[in-house]
Design a protein that fits this description.
The protein has 23 helices and 17 strands. By secondary structure, it is an alpha+beta fold. The strands form 4 sheets. Strands 2-1-6-3-4-5 form a 6-stranded mixed beta sheet. The protein has a 6-stranded mixed beta sheet with strand order 8-7-12-9-10-11, sandwiched between helices. A hairpin with a 4-residue loop joins strand 1 and strand 2.
């Protein structure tokens, strides 16, 4: 069935329903795949990321809004203000399901509103309301206020004060608790003067074979109930991986200067989980709701920090108190900030001051209050733009001699897990078309002591070369297929509970036509290849698949990964060859023809 899009024309304050060509659904499925098609076919190369002509695309897949568990998330895609290339931000929850139940597979926003507005989508009824009552409010307060106004069944996605202040890596937050990250899509939404998008969904979207689809979900739930990995992710979220990260030496300190983040050795996933009363939540109907928040004595929620917050604010920036980690993470969620990019910017500034490249700041490693103040300042409009708000990619241009230790690739901040300890993570950071973020592929398995047996190739040591390229490509393609289908990547690639065969069976039941694992691999490959071409065409910074000098050339002196450097030359050569790309990493005419591109 052709995909249904809602075009929002902010310059004229109008909305136009649109049906995409049937080939888009056949070749890209939907979700992220359809968004990639829209951007690749409709965005001129000279369009500035923050210009009114840039497109902001919210997408859902054919499983979204059907009542199947773990299908409520969405993907936001645009031209990134950080890299100039394609940006994808991923969020979970129920907002994506609501959009599809409102009748739309995609929301395509173009232009710029004259005044800050709230976009309200209630089926075919589209309205543009004044954002004045919620302007300046944090993401949680905005969610509460708009649900009080439009109904508790309304789903809200909004930007926070950081987006309003123009922070380049600001995020969109759904339902006051699901952060769409990374890549700065909140900055683009803010540039269009949209404070929030409120969606009221209607009836569930039909399934061609409901009994067959729900049988797959029931089997997944049964599998997850007996899986130690799944139950660990349910209890700890991504912090389930924290002891493995420490064991392999990937939790380094002070922006990667120290081989072991000593201050975090006493902070465990259990101590964080037991820091206070917690409530779990997740995507609608998920068998392993893997998000949670603490509940304060006054009943207010406080976000539980995931692995990137612990590694970023703890290892990278030096915070030693678990309560400080929790507060910094919660502050980012309220302000609408990506924790990986925020901690990277602060750690980079700390080292610039340490090296005497910047004398303007007062930050010191591990100073709780100074770091809190730096984060809070990102949510305040400044007469002169704060350097931290630029992101690491642009900050390194300001401080001469800092590029070697600037934690970024292609302009996007690197998450805090040290690639010198993990070869597959290193390859992912270097090669991802969105920039240096392994969440593009979600390749967590190399950290596990017992990876899933159904993955390609035999498992190997995290610092070995064998099998890394093939496993990364598998993750890239499966992640792209999951995003195109509208199925949860955390259930599938953090907890490793659904396989390509499961996804193919679900889609076959939903669409009423045969979908195979091979079909999904080809769809995923097509998406990844178009994103690669987009990066080569649009990137405003170096598009080289290269890590910064510290993580490429300077081995750690202590810790489990001491003396090791990622074998990127060998890894990239195999990675390009397996993709069917040339020695420079560009898709060959032959491979493009095979994919119909």
């Amino acid at each position: 069935m052709p995909l249904r899009a809602l075009r929002i024309l902010l310059d004229t304050g109008t909305a136009q329903p649109e049906t995409l060509p049937p080939a888009v659904e056949q070749e890209y499925l939907g979700g992220r795949g359809a968004a990639v098609w829209v951007l690749a076919n409709r965005l001129p190369p000279n369009t500035g990321p923050l210009s009114r002509a840039n497109l902001l695309v919210f997408s859902t897949g054919p499983l979204s809004g059907t009542g199947i568990g773990a299908t409520g998330g969405f993907v936001v895609s645009t031209r990134s203000p950080l890299t100039g290339a394609i940006a994808h931000s991923w969020a979970h929850g129920s907002w994506g399901g609501a959009l599809r139940r409102a009748g739309y597979d995609l929301l395509i926003i173009e232009g710029q509103s004259a005044e800050w507005c709230v976009l309200v989508i209630d089926g075919e009824k589209i309205s543009f309301e004044s954002a004045a009552p919620v302007l300046g409010a944090d993401t949680r307060a905005t969610d509460i206020a708009l649900r009080q106004k439009y109904g508790e069944d309304a789903a809200v996605a909004c930007v926070g004060p950081a987006g309003e202040a123009g922070v380049a890596y600001s995020s969109i937050v759904a339902e006051g608790r699901f952060v769409a990250e990374p890549a700065g899509t909140g900055s683009v939404m803010s540039s269009k003067h949209i404070k929030a998008i409120v969606v009221r969904g209607g009836a569930q979207q039909p399934l061609a074979d409901s009994a067959r689809a729900h049988a797959v979900v029931a089997a997944l739930a049964k599998r997850a109930a007996t899986s130690e990995l799944a139950q660990g992710v349910r209890q700890f979220g991504s912090n389930y991986y924290l002891p493995f990260v420490k064991e392999w030496g990937a939790l380094t300190g002070r922006n990667g200067q120290d081989g072991r983040a000593q201050q975090l050795q006493a902070i465990t996933r259990t101590t964080l989980a037991q820091r206070g009363k917690r409530e779990s939540f997740g995507c609608d109907g998920c068998p392993i709701p893997c998000y949670s928040h603490y509940v304060r004595k006054n009943g207010e929620p406080m976000a539980y920090p995931e692995l990137e917050a612990v590694a970023g604010f703890g290892g990278r920036c030096g915070l030693t108190n678990p309560d400080a980690l929790i507060f910094a993470n919660d502050l980012c969620q309220r302000l609408g900030l990506d924790v990986a990019s925020t901690s990277a910017a602060i750690a980079f500034m700390l080292e610039c001051q340490q090296e005497g490249l910047s004398r303007a700041g007062t930050l010191t490693w591990g100073d709780d209050e100074a770091i809190f103040q730096a984060i809070q300042k990102l949510g305040q409009k400044q007469e002169k733009r704060d350097l931290l708000s630029l992101g690491v990619g642009e900050m390194q241009e300001v401080f001469f001699g800092s590029a070697a230790f600037a934690p970024q690739v292609k302009g996007l901040a690197m998450p805090a897990l040290d690639p010198r300890a993990l070869n597959e993570i290193a390859l992912s950071l270097a090669s991802a078309s969105i920039g240096g973020d392994y969440r593009y592929s979600m390749c967590y398995e190399e950290m596990l002591p017992d990876p899933p047996s159904w993955l390609p190739d035999e498992p190997s040591h995290p610092q070995a070369v064998k099998g890394k390229a093939s496993r990364l490509i598998w993750h890239e393609r499966f992640a792209a297929a999951l995003d195109a289908a509208g199925f949860c990547r955390r259930l599938s690639l953090l907890a490793y509970q659904s396989t390509p065969a499961d996804l193919a069976e679900l889609l076959s039941a939903a669409l009423g036509r045969a979908i195979t694992g091979q079909d999904l691999a080809r769809i995923g490959e097509r998406i990844v290849t178009v994103e690669r071409q987009f990066m080569r065409t649009y990137s405003t910074v170096s598009s080289e698949d290269k890590l910064p000098a510290r993580w490429r050339d300077q081995a750690l002196k202590d810790g489990r990964a001491a003396g090791h450097l990622p074998a990127l030359e060998d890894l990239l050569a195999e990675y390009y060859k397996r993709h069917g790309w040339d020695e420079n990493g560009d898709p060959t005419p032959k491979r493009l023809a095979e994919l119909g591109l």
